[in-house]
Amino acid sequence: MIIGTLALLFIVPVLFIFFQYLQEKIHPMQFERSKDWTIQAEIEEL
Predict the structure, then answer these.
(1) Which ranges constitute the DSSP H helices of the chain?
(2) Whole-model pTM?
(3) Cα→Cα distances 6→2, 11, 12, 17, 35, Å
(4) Span 13-36, mean pLDDT?
(5) What pLDDT score does 17 carry?
(6) 38 to each of 29, 30, 31, 32, 45, how far by Cα in Å?
């Protein structure tokens, strides 16, 4: 039982990171242009 717990403790985060990476490669995040100049300034800083 401890082996299963430890395996899931390490496997689940690795799978999460892997699938997040795949999702970014397939469909990158896109920011919409905002009319608010303060939000636009913050986005440009990124």
Answers:
(1) 2-26, 37-45
(2) 0.54
(3) 6, 8, 10, 17, 49
(4) 84
(5) 96
(6) 20, 18, 15, 14, 11
> Considering all CA atoms of the chain, what is the largest pairwise distance in Å, rounded to the nearest integer?
55
* The length of the chain, given as a count of residues: 46
Residue 13 near residue 19, CB atoms below 8 Å: no
Residues sharing a CB contact under 8 Å with residue 43, sequence separation 6 or more, in sequence order:
31, 34
Can you say whether the dihedral through the CA atoms of 3, 20, 44, 33 is positive or negative? negative
Q: Is it the case that residue 37 has pLDDT exceeding 90? A: no
Mean pLDDT of the chain: 84
Q: How many CA atoms lie within 13 A of 36 on its CB side?
A: 5
